[in-house]
Each structure stands twice: as C-alpha cells, then as structure tokens.
Amino acid sequence: MCAPTDTQPERAPGAAQGDLSNYKKYLDEPDDHAIGHSRGGLTTKIHALTDQLCSPVTLALSAGQASDNPMLWPLLAARCSNSYAPYRLLADKANSHDSTRAQLRRLKIAHTIPERSDQITRRKAKGRNRGRPPGFSGRIYKHRNTVERSFNRLKHWRAVATCYDKYALTYLGGVTLAAIITYHRVRN
C-alpha cells in the first residue's frame, strides 16, 4: 500500500506560513515610494554626500520632483552621527539660502556655496545697507565635481542607472551596494 505524499515543505509547529514580510511592514518605506513626476516621467532622485575620493559616504532617496535643499539636513545628520572628523560642505546654488547658511554656521560646518544671481541682484539693490557677500572660494569650489564623478561611478551599475525597482527600500539597497563596492574599489 502506498502512503500519501505531501508536497508541502516541512515546518516547525507554530511556524509562520507564506511570505509575511512585504513593503507594508517596513516603517522606513516612504508613502510615495520615492517616485515622483518630472520631465522624464516617473523618477527617483538620489542624494549623496561624497568624500574627496569620489566615494559616496551618505545616501538618501526622494521623489524626482523634490528639491535638493530639504534633503541636505538628513544627509548631514547621518554624516555627523557617524564621524567626528572635520569636513567642508561644497554645495551648488540649490542650497544657497540664507537659512541654510545660518544653520551651517550654527553647526560649525565650513561650507562653500555660490550665490544665486537673484540673491546678488537683491543684495546690490539694497544700496549701502546691502551687507557683505557670503564667503566663496572658486579655488575650493572647483573640487565640487567629485560629486558628479561619484554619481558617474554609481550609474555604471545598471540597476542604479535604470531604477526598475518597485520600492524605494529595494532601490536604496542596490544603490548602497554599488556605493560600498565603489568605495572599496577606490581605496584599493
């Protein structure tokens, strides 16, 4: 006589069945999955702090239409909590706000950010009471291309360049993996 066969896998009594972990159980998954509308369609934007060797140090994601300035503070908070080494922030004109500069001064973070043309015009229109322009060194700012070179290295990874992932946590995991491997390739 043949015994009936069971095709179900063996489980311990009381063990959970099925795939109970999904994107709804993660607290860090943004509501919009970091997908936003921009001129290119649905996109996700990667924000990064990089070191002088073009390696990403801190990463974050946002929707494609989001501006860069609000993401500066989470990146700096993650950087400050991981390192006590002094550093200088080189940022583009998107971060050239008076409130951003004041906050960076309060945190004692050295920074080189160019002034936007509308800020220069507004300052000059005030006449004698226009105040001093913020400190800016073109010699130091020339090194800002390390950020662009870092993104170029990340975009060599197909998963990062195409962004086919459905969820932000999955995409961030792929970007982080590419960043870790890039970091170690640069240093070896």
Percent range for β-strand residues: 5-15%
CATH topology: Nucleotidyltransferase, domain 5
What is the radius of gyration computed over CA atoms, rounded to a whole number of angstroms?
23 Å
Beta strands, count: 5
Structural class: alpha+beta
Question: What is the typical, i.e. mean, pLDDT?
Answer: 78
The secondary-structure element order is EEEHEHEHHHHH
The CATH architecture name reads 2-Layer Sandwich
Q: What strand order characterises the main sheet?
A: 1-2-3
CATH class: Alpha Beta
Indicate the low-confidence ranges by residue numbers: 1-15
| Main β-sheet description | 3 strands, antiparallel
- Tell me the overall shape: globular
The N- and C-terminal alpha carbons lie at a distance of 65 Å
Oligomer: single chain
Portion in helices? 25-40%
Domain Transposase IS4-like: 33-169
Pfam family, one: DDE_Tnp_1
Protein name: Transposase IS4-like domain-containing protein
InterPro entries: Transposase_11
Secondary-structure map with pairings?
Layout: E1 36-38, E2 41-50, E3 56-63, H1 69-82, E4 88-90, H2 98-106, E5 110-112, H3 117-125, H4 138-141, H5 145-154, H6 158-162, H7 168-187
Protein name: Transposase IS4-like domain-containing protein
Domain Transposase IS4-like: 33-169
GO molecular function, one term: transposase activity
